[in-house]
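Q: For a teaching handout, I want to show students what a protein-ligand complex looks like in token form. Below are the inputs, and the small molecule is NDP. Please produce the holo structure.
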Amino acid sequence: MGIFSGKTGLVLGVANDRSIAWAMSEALVAEGAELGFSHLPGERSERRVRQLAEPHNAKLIMPLDVQKDEEIDAFFDKAKEIYGKIDFVIHSIAYAPTKELQNPYYMISREGWHMAMDISAYSLLATTRAALPLMPDGGSIVTLTYFGGEKVMPGYNVMGVCKAALEHTVRYLAWDLGEKNVRVNALSAGPMRTLSSAGISDFDEMREHQAQKSCLKRNVDPKELGSTGIYLLSDMSNGVTGETIHVDCGYNIVG
Ligand code: NDP
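A: Here is the structure, written as tokens, with NDP included.
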């Protein structure tokens, strides 16, 4: 028995075993949670997610491109059919075309800006809306953000602008959904080596700088994201909504 025994959640954004969403999933499964997963359409993405999720007896492993409303509807409809109700959703999705990240921000194309915003910020709104019918008694939604949404981090470019939009979307969603007892929070993680972070220029320098400057003088451990995920997704944080919780070894408080 764990604190998530009898609880069910959906995880959007596992790419492989280095994904932040996977670190959170492992922590939740260890506490007894039942999880369903999405993956980007395509044989490679599906194979990677199945390899991780099937040993945990996931009943739902289904394609979902958050740019497609019909795929969002199909994913949440299927989840309703399988689980009836769910208790939480992890939204751990972001994307910007690599060339747009590598150019200075002022050079970004209209198309690249829209795509980054759509996948990295609007998708929280769209998936939250689709999850509501599965949360008639309330629930908890957590998204992943980064400090580059609060301050300028060289190289983070459009993704910083997307994270600013995401964090404020969290606050407006928290306001809208409070009366439904649905809580929405963001976990602001310190830099982790993942597939997504490979697209950020000077990422290794960013990691090193953060380790040196942070209060704890190190980078964050994936398990620490898992344990904060447990807090935000469980009854332990019942009075917390609309927040951005930093799990960055105290980097953000240092001037
Ligand atoms: P991952 O690459 O492991 O996860 C990103 C996920 O987003 C992947 O599963 C990817 O699918 C998915 N994705 C991209 N586009 C779409 C789309 N159109 N529809 C559905 N899914 C899509 O990287 P992380 O774990 O690092 O990233 C997860 C979240 O954490 C992101 O929001 C990121 O910005 C945030 N974050 C990351 C930090 C870091 O240093 N790594 C620090 C702070 C926050 P696929 O791989 O199949 O393309």
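A: Two things your students might notice: The chain has a mean pLDDT of 97. The CA atoms of residues 210 and 251 lie 6 Å apart.
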